[in-house]
From TrEMBL:
Residues 190-450 form the YjeF C-terminal domain. It catalyses: (6R)-NADPHX = (6S)-NADPHX; (6S)-NADHX + ADP = AMP + phosphate + NADH + H(+); (6S)-NADPHX + ADP = AMP + phosphate + NADPH + H(+); (6R)-NADHX = (6S)-NADHX. This is ADP-dependent (S)-NAD(P)H-hydrate dehydratase. It comes from Pelomonas dachongensis. NCBIfam families: yjeF_cterm. Its cofactor is Mg(2+); K(+). The keyword NADP applies.
């Protein structure tokens, strides 16, 4: 058993159906899985309980409750006061939430909701067994009106995608994992991203070796967005970075605060990676047909996504692009517009939504937000576990778009999916500080990760 995040490698995630298959096969040769699970929970509980008070263990009707009962037995054998009940003891030292795990299949019944509320109110830290009760393992959404907000979750046997995206990040608390000695014997349902290697830079390389990025966007009043993206592409190591600011007069500098940036257009730079849409406003619509047809690799963000959502002819141009050449970076509202749904239903299953977008537009999609999801046709989806609310500030998405463009410029042969996985993870790690990080600061935080 070990703490999980930050992860130093990419890890396999298994949805509920896959976890059940793995469990069923493992039980055939290791019938003592529940004993292993219970022991592991008891060990972690011993380390986490805050004082000499009783450990409250609340067990449900299935095997999740079975794990909890074994843990209670182990704790009692170790001389710890254990309170095995659906109602709280006086001043519990820790709560073990073993009500519902993988088997959650409907909104929790009222009596379970009452126990969940009592757990939350009792003042002790909550250790959830496998999943916080009421949280769906595939999507990270509560099945009903509420799910337990745990302080710690010990995932057992497999890592479930729902703990890493959507509401899962807010419900799981600190994440722990015990594989119970079983190596999964089927392919993962999704990847949990680890860090990727920075693009190689040969001793004899020159600026022409590291590609070109062209940022198109920045309508009057929102030019900062395009400049943030351009500065980030530069910090990422792209050989040359150009900006095409909408409505900028011919004699103005690309970015007076960043003299390395140059002005350019798609017509002049047909090999550049386009990063298009940042702060672009409605004016991007007119430029989009040429950009979609002309530039061999595109990162499409913000207003360019909104323009595409509103125009079937732009959607057709997008779908006609070469495979693995286009990367969309919508936040949930932009993604909902592209799919023609609302954000609540989109957020209810972020993995499915990202995959639906990737299929519909034949693109790689980064569905941003807590636990960003990366999906591409024919690829296993990935979830980014790094990042946090420090990133919830204007401009951090522009920085992501610029970083993706900068990475892609330096790795022209790489498919969009690989660039997205590497870039989103690096961006998240750079934004793991507490509080709020200004988007401009994020750029300098990203640069050392190259
Ligand atoms: N077997 C092993 O050795 C191992 C097992 N492991 C552990 O087992 C867990 C999975 O166990 P599980 O399959 O029994 O499912 P679990 O989460 O206990 O729930 C099922 C029960 O809850 C009920 N129920 C469902 N929804 C409900 C609701 N909303 N409101 C009320 N009731 C509801 C459902 O009722 P039913 O639908 O049948 O009426 C059924 O009775 C897994 O998460 C892990 O902890 C691992 O440690 C690996 C080793
Ligand atoms: N709570 C959070 N946890 C993790 N990542 C977050 C969180 N809030 C925002 N982010 C990340 O910050 C970025 C915000 O992008 P976006 O909404 O497009 O911002 P902007 O348009 O202002 O640049 C995305 O990469 C998103 O995943």
């Amino acid at each position: 058993m070990h703490a999980l995040l930050p992860t130093t490698t990419t890890l396999p995630l298994f949805d509920v159906a896959a976890s059940r298959r793995i469990e069923a096969r493992a039980l055939a040769h290791s019938p003592d899985l529940m004993a292993r699970a219970g022991l592991s929970i008891a060990k972690l509980a011993l380390a986490l309980r805050r004082d000499e008070g009783p450990v409250w263990v609340a067990c449900g009707p299935g095997n999740n409750g079975g794990d909890g009962r074994v843990a209670a037995q182990r704790l009692a054998e170790a001389g710890i006061a254990v309170h095995l009940s659906h109602s709280p003891p006086e001043r519990p030292a820790l709560v073990i939430d073993a009500l519902l795990g993988l088997g959650l299949n409907r909104a929790p019944a009222p009596e379970l909701l009452a126990t969940m509320a009592a757990m939350q109110a009792c003042g002790a830290a909550i250790l959830a067994v496998d999943l916080p009760s009421g949280l769906l393992g595939d999507t990270g959404q509560p099945a009903g009106e509420r799910a337990v907000r745990a302080d710690h979750t010990l995932q057992l046997l497999t890592l479930k995608p729902g703990l890493f995206t959507g509401e899962g990040r807010a419900h799981g608390g600190r994440l722990w994992f015990d594989d119970l000695g079983i190596t999964p014997d089927e392919a993962a349902s999704a990847d949990l991203l680890g860090p990727a290697a920075a693009p190689a830079r040969s001793q004899t390389s020159h600026k022409g070796s590291h590609g070109q990025v062209l940022v198109v966007g920045g309508a009057p009043g929102t030019q900062g967005a395009a400049r943030l993206a351009a500065r980030t592409a530069l910090a990422c190591g792209a050989g040359r970075v150009y900006v095409d600011l909408l409505d900028l007069s011919a004699d103005e500098a690309a970015d007076p605060g960043q003299p390395e940036l140059m002005r350019g257009t798609a017509a002049e730079l047909p090999q550049a990676v386009g990063v298009i849409g940042c702060g672009a406003g409605a004016a991007i619509s007119d430029a989009l047909p040429a950009l979609l047809q002309r530039l061999p690799r595109l990162v499409i963000d913000a207003d360019a996504l909104n323009a595409i959502a509103a125009d079937a002819s732009l959607q057709a141009l997008l779908c006609a692009r070469a495979p693995a050449s286009t990367l969309l970076t919508p936040h949930p509202l932009e993604a909902a517009r592209l799919l023609g749904c609302d954000t609540v239903s989109l957020q209810a299953d972020r993995l499915a939504a990202a995959q639906a977008l990737a299929e519909r537009f034949s693109c790689t999609v980064v569905l941003k937000g807590s636990g960003s999801v990366i999906a591409s046709r024919g690829e296993r989806p990935a979830i980014c576990a790094s990042g946090g609310p420090a990133l919830a500030t204007a401009g951090s998405g522009d920085v992501l778009a610029g970083w993706l463009g900068g990475l892609w410029a330096q790795q022209p042969g790489a498919p969009a999916h690989r660039i997205a996985c590497a870039g989103v993870d690096a961006h998240g790690r750079a934004g793991e500080a507490g509080g709020v990080r200004r988007a401009g600061d994020l750029i300098s935080q990203l640069a050392p990760s190259r």
